[in-house]
Amino acid sequence: MELVNIILGSIAGSSVTGIIVVQVRKALDKYQDYRMTKLQCETDVKINRDNNRHAAKLGKEYTAKNSKSQTMTRAS
């Protein structure tokens, strides 16, 4: 990104080129924001998936534990 800014800064001599450079910089900023948002969404999805797996595991353990205690209560 820094290299692109250096290149664009050296090109920005004329007013027309300067306008183009500004537009390219805006586009690069938007793209970088998009990438950061996408990365955050992917991270959130991974965290949610991990949390769901953990909750399912706890649910299975809870069900197994309670079904054993109910079976023992009924048998006695």
What tags apply to this protein structure?
single chain, 76 residues, mainly alpha, 2 helices, 93% helix, rod-shaped
Structure description:
The chain has 76 residues and is mostly helical. It has one domain (2-75). It is built from two helices and no strands. It has helices spanning 2-11, 15-75. The protein is rod-shaped, with a radius of gyration of 28 Å. It starts with a helix and ends with a helix.
Tally of individual domains:
1
> Shape from CA axes?
rod-shaped
Order of helices and strands: HH
Q: Helical content, roughly?
A: over 70%
Describe how the helices and strands are arranged:
Blueprint: H1 2-11, H2 15-75
Helix pairs in contact: 1-2
Can you give me a brief rundown of this structure?
The chain has helices at residues 2-11, 15-75.
